[in-house]
Amino acid sequence: MAPASGLTARLGRSWTRFDGPGRLVGVDLARGLAVIGMLAAHLLDTERVLTPDPETWITVVNGRSSILFATLAGVSIALVTGGPRPLDPARRPRAAARLAMRGALLWVIGLLLVLTGVPVYVILPAYALLFVLALPFLGMGARGLFLTAGALALVMPWIQPVLDAAPIWSGLGGDELAALVGWNYPFTVWIAFLLAGMGVGRLDLRRAPEQALLVLGGVSLMLAGYGFALATAPLVSGGGYLAAVLTAEDHSSGLWEVIGSGGFAITAIGLCLLLCRTPLRWLAIPLRAVGSMPLTAYVLQLVVWAVVALAVLGDTSDLYGVRELGLFGPLTLGLIVGCTVWALTIGRGPLEAVVDAVVRAVVGPDAVTRAGGPGPASAGPVASGDVGGPR
């Protein structure tokens, strides 16, 4: 009888952590969509021009999934550092130390993934730098964060082509340096997405008006970014510097991509929050489970990819060979089923738990929990220890 009682209690704790009143399950859903979107961008044929034809809609995952990841990282950082009320100055140093330590661990994990030779631009090294760059902004409120993000979004795309053309990237060791800093997701521009996400996390995301405001604001940014991209296309058709700036092309870090795809990320977050106010939240449980352990899901997909490619093709870098194997379907299904079973029976994702244990051992417990504030289950959309993964 005792073992059965213990199992029931454990399952109850896992469910409370997964769907308890202190959890913003809509953010989990957005994370799950970002994880699957990045997997689709890697393993499916997404190199198409977006048109009204539904067959071309898959191209939406290109670029936008990773930008949604970065924006959600900012949301998580804000939520575990006080949410709508930033931590007071006395508690901020410990929170900053924990985030810096998580960034260091992400950087190491990212480099290990790069060494697998899987032909994707691993985002974790860029995440590591973004975590460190976020530290000076931990005490800032939503208004300041949105204004800073907006200023960077408007200015940095004009500077980025110059930075991309720097001799350091084409010289000896340039490729290795780019991998070390995740330059395919340049922190000089992507900090705008992170700070915008932090601004979102400083809102009261449990209230429907704020959720609806995110959708309205995000749609407005999408219309502006993609609308201006269409309007300026004839002016930059000849290429050159302006063409590199005034573009919405995926992974370009162009001005219109930053505005339009940044708006897409904010819209997706708002819609997921609103959706999870309805009974559809139950249908979304599998995707929410993936989003509850994004670091585990992201790393696992690349490790499985590497193992299968090496075993079947003898080469982990053969992208088209892997696509021909049809790996996307089985891998996606396996991730969804595995994450769902784990989340509902065990709880926190395994890599998330390891990262949190290391951070606690080195830095100490979370500042919010230590000070008597909300504990792990109520620290936001993830437990306070889960902010170490891609969002």
The description of the largest β-sheet is: none
Judging from the principal axes of the Cα atoms, what is the shape?
globular
Span of the ends, CA to CA: 41 Å
Q: What proportion of the residues is helical, as a percent range?
A: 55-70%
Q: Tell me what portion of residues adopts beta-strand conformation.
A: under 5%
How many distinct beta strands? Answer: 0
Provide the structure class. mainly alpha
- Unreliable segments of 5+ consecutive residues: 368-391
Number of domains: 1
Mean pLDDT across all amino acids: 88
- Element order: H for helix, E for strand: HHHHHHHHHHHHHHHHHHH
Radius of gyration: 20 Å
SS element count, helices: 19
List the defining traits of the structure above:
single chain; 391 residues; mainly alpha; globular; disordered C terminus; transmembrane helix
Model description:
Mean pLDDT is 88; it is low at 368-391. The chain starts with a helix and ends in a 21-residue tail after the last helix. By secondary structure, it is mainly α. The longest helix is centred in the middle third of the chain and has 25 residues, at 208-232. Helices cover 67% and strands 0% of the residues. The chain has one domain (10-388). It is built from 19 helices and no strands. InterPro entries: Bact_Transport_Assoc, DUF418, HGSNAT_cat. The chain crosses the membrane at residues 64-83, 95-114, 145-163, 183-201, 213-235, 255-275, 295-313, 325-344. Residues 371-391 are annotated as: Disordered. Keywords: Acyltransferase, Membrane, Transferase, Transmembrane, Transmembrane helix. Residues 376-385 have a biased composition (Low complexity).
